[in-house]
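Shapes recur. Our protein:

. . .
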Amino acid sequence: MIGSKSVIGLDIGSDSVKAVQLRRRGNTLELERFGVAPIHPNGSPGEVGGASRELKIAAARRAIADGKCTAKYAATAVGGEAVIVRYIQLPEMPEADLRNALRWEAEEYIPYHIDEVNIDSVVLGRSAEPGKLDVLLVCAKKDMINDHVAIVRSLGLTPLIVDVDSFAFMNYFEELYKPSPDRCMALANIGAEVTSINIYVGGTSRFSRDISIAGNAITVAISQKAGLPMAKAEEVKRQTGAPLPESADAGAEEESSLISSIRGTVEKMTGGVDSGGGLESASTKATRNVLTNLVTELRRSIQYFENQGRGVTVQRLYVGGGTARMPNLQAYLAQELQLEVEVIDPFSRIAIGSGVNETLARANAENLGVGIGLALRKVG
């Protein structure tokens, strides 16, 4: 039992590693330490394949060192296709019998051999159907879990817990907003390679899903559509953002200096503006195509949950992750989903400690959800 000793929330993403350490001062939660480091410091999104363990360890070391993190315990998280989350019903039974039954039930829901995965579960409560329990079943491939644990140990830290990205993000949301039990909200953590969707109602998760549509997909689409190197396409994405709800094609917005300079380079290389209407038009079309697919998956997830017969509808969407920093994304999602959308700002409720680089922390505000959710595990 670790007690109240502080923990480093180590978010090992596909693009960067975030190291977060928290503490409580009375009723106030404070970001005590924070560091971030890119996994591919000399590369660009999409140009390098899956990061090796060595690259992740090096990035984690830099993040911990730059953040001056002092805790000796770490919590980390996994996500993506190798994590299977299912919501199932089982007959009411003693806990020991339930755990035995789950192993056999899990075989019906996972595409891997049962010996290749770690299994965990949480009883969510009694089902609407008499004599039944609602159970959250989580399975993750053992080799992925072992890889994360090996990274933590190589840093000289003691691994305390391996969570799931979407549940760590939900833990973060709960701490910031403390929603009432009657509220039903959708959460979307839009990272570089994966978007984690979670629907929170009655104080727990009732739907969770990861989809492979996120920030890097937009960068790749811009690169291909406009014929730009990945690094330049990433800059264009961050500069232009999502299509404006009412003027995505109007061309009324003044062209940015970045777009102007890149447009000039393209025109010199090609002898003129591309037939699609120029760089800005190509970028907007590419971004819209990817975001349309993302919105479709968000909408499908929400509709699937609402059609389960619980009589509950999603009231609001809360968004985080590095891609949430895109200009206009909040307004775009709100219009397309016809929902109120809020980009979570952790520093509206969490203080920044004196030992933290405040400029760096605020620049990464949207990126802190999973790390904070992990660091909360043993704070206080």
Residues 279-306 form the longest helix (28 residues). Residues 45-50, 247-257, 266-276 have pLDDT under 50 and may be disordered. Residues 197 and 298 are 7 Å apart (CA to CA). The radius of gyration is 22 Å.
